[in-house]
Write the structure tokens for this entry.
Amino acid sequence: MKIAKDDIQVKMQIPGAILRQQTDFGDATGLGKISAEYFSLSAGVDTTPLFIGLKGNSCQCPHWGFLTSGSITTTDVSGKQETVHANELFYWPPGHNVKVNEDAEIVMFSPQHEHTQVINHMIEKTSG
């Protein structure tokens, strides 16, 4: 799920402030502590080989975020692809891989426990 800023309904507008809200943007029920993350990714990065060995060979952690620049395509376990572009909010449910189309900067929020496990798995894959 992704959405551009201009596609989010304006809920309130007053001089000096515009408030937009997209409801039902993912579900964080029972996920515990959330980590805030900032990723800088180069074009060509593909998580597919990094996630081998995880359930479904994909990231099983949900993410909510904002792409500040670049372009990223996710592929879910069913093969469905979705491309997120700069200035779009996104929600990536569990069961995805990521391919960076253009150098990208991401601000992301993830369940801390689950994403730390995925990050540690990637560190092991890229170590010696």
Remarks:
- The chain has one domain: 34-126.
- Strands lie at 2-4, 10-14, 17-20, 34-41, 63-76, 81-85, 88-92, 96-111.
